[in-house]
């Protein structure tokens, strides 16, 4: 399995669509199935940091960060070696590496000894899957062999950190927070919102563009959401059960009991999927008060999924 074919594997962040990262043919199938623009590079999943030498140029920061955060939801970008096919790195001279902690994925790496490229197992421009049902709702009959690992633990994609040059850049907020990394490294990190760039970098996909959360209206605060019109005709996603919406009780989806950021992150994408299944006129939600780094990551995903209402 996986030499030239695809498989869907669970990770602790979201489900991944895995293929042999060193096989142009296999990786081509990933781009085709996802409808993903070719210039958007893939993350290569490895068992541990010793696998990096063959495909990348590890530096001291890589070893420091992997000792502390791997296996886990931290993707690191390094200068790549020629063995990485252009299609895997989107034509860049860097490569993204991550060592997932989820056991089924690790077993697969161990048994196949393959470097596995694995983007989130969803169609391009759609919400990442946090359980097998979401994967099947994306790919239908074309779903590759799938390992069911239950609901993903974090529920949002890994933090992406570019350490390929002197200036360390955070390209995607995720479960490992910016503050935690800055404190650990004792140096500032330049934060650069890849998600916005990704949105811009994915033009020309209008034929397959279907946002499952469309139209999603994102309000800057709960108060703004509450004073908006058409509340009774919308599905409303709220951060926690202590918030109550006037006159609408049946179409509310809560992301947590008491506002715990980990719970919200775990439930966010599943809530988007559930809201979509209700086929309502529109979906409304609000941004979180950014009380911790994970809230920044969650707000990033919410902004990306919808339209901000000013
Ligand atoms: O949690 C995750 O990271 C999941 C699981 C399956 O591991 N994977 C995932 O992959 O989210 P994907 O392809 O959906 O997102 C990878 C992100 C993309 O935004 C891509 O542009 C960026 O990482 N990326 C990959 N290689 C890069 C590189 N060499 N330079 C800059 N960005 C890169
Ligand atoms: Mg993705």
Radius of gyration: 19 Å
What characterizes the major β-sheet? 10 strands, mixed
DSSP summary: helix tally: 11
Amount of beta strand: 15-25%
Bound molecules: threonylcarbamoyladenylate, magnesium ion
What structural class results from the helix and strand content?
Answer: alpha/beta
H and E string: EEHEHEHEHEHEHEEHEHEHEEHEHE
Poorly predicted ranges (pLDDT <50, ≥5 residues)?
A: 194-210
Fraction in helix: 25-40%
How many DSSP-defined strands?
15
N/C terminus separation: 50 Å
Chain oligomer state: single chain
Description:
The structure is a single chain. This protein is α/β, with parallel strands linked by helices and 310 residues long. The chain has eleven helices and 15 strands. Strands 1, 2, 3, 4, 5, 6, 7, 8, 9 and 10 form a ten-stranded mixed beta sheet that branches. Helix 10 (261-277) packs parallel to helix 11. The longest helix is centred in the last third of the chain and has 17 residues, at 261-277. It is globular. 45% of the residues are buried. The model is unreliable at 194-210 (pLDDT under 50). The chain binds threonylcarbamoyladenylate and magnesium ion.
Summarize the structure.
This protein has 310 residues and is α/β, with parallel strands linked by helices.
Keywords:
310 residues, alpha/beta, globular, binds threonylcarbamoyladenylate, binds magnesium ion
